[in-house]
Amino acid sequence: MKDSKKRFSTIMWFSILIFLAIVLTFPRWISIFYPQPHRNLVFSASYQYDVDPHLVFAIIRAESKYQNTAQSSVGARGLMQIMPETGRWIAEQQGIQDFDPESLHDPETNIRLGCWYLSDLNREFNGNTPMVVAAYNAGRGKLKEWVVNGQWDGSPETIDNIPFQETRLYVKNVLKNYEAYQAIYK
Questions:
Q1: What is the pLDDT of residues 84-104, one digit of tens each?
Q2: How far apart are CA 181 and CA 186, in angstroms?
Q3: How many whole angstroms separate alpha carbon 7 and alpha carbon 11?
Q4: Residue from 96, 69, 79 nearest 39 by CA
Q5: Residue 179 appears among annotated catalytic residues
Q6: Helix or strand or coil: residue 35?
Q7: Which residue range(s) make up the domain with 108?
Q8: Is 97 helix (H, G, I), strand (E, B) or coil?
């Protein structure tokens, strides 16, 4: 009886120590799955364009899995997977001359243009994050069409009403990433 109490006590203390170790190191090991690559670039550009850096990291995670050399089958490039035509338009809006689509593989250029674009979408959609994320993926024209046609009201509760499956899954993924980044790095 005495041995079983001692064994139980040892197991209990061991369990408490393991629990404390997990709780106290949680942010360190979970950040392996939600890193902040190019942290200084993201924070600088996101503050310059008034965009939440956690949202930027969430988009980078969903778009490229942090690979600045990423290129999609349709031609989107870099960390934030910006299409060359979109990059050219953003560059024009910013007064950047001689835009080269290859520069979208440069983390600084990609993050700066991506943050400006998110800021522009934020203004247009009044800071409605699910709508901003959906527009980032499907385009602002498609998003407006869905809203006007009553297909989606832009609320997080009705994301399943987004007509494009790719965009629906993308919005859910980015919002999940966004919540994780906010929880880990707040």
A1: 999 999 999 999 999 999 999
A2: 8
A3: 6
A4: 79
A5: no
A6: coil
A7: 35-185
A8: coil
Which of 63, 102, 108, 157 is the catalytic position? 63
Query: Do 110 and 20 lie in a common domain?
Result: no
User: Are 55 and 113 contained in the same domain?
Assistant: yes
Nearest by Cα to 79 from 55, 99, 53, 105: 105
Which tokens is 143 given? Answer: 């998003």
Structure tokens at 177: 């990433």
* Residue that is written with structure tokens 């859910």 in the block: 172
**Whether residues 21 and 96 fall in one domain:** no
pTM of the full predicted structure?
0.85
> Which residue in this structure is represented by tokens 């790095």?
185
Q: CA 118, CA 95: separation in Å to the nearest integer?
A: 17
Instruction: Indicate the helix (H) or strand (E) that contains 121.
Output: helix 107-124
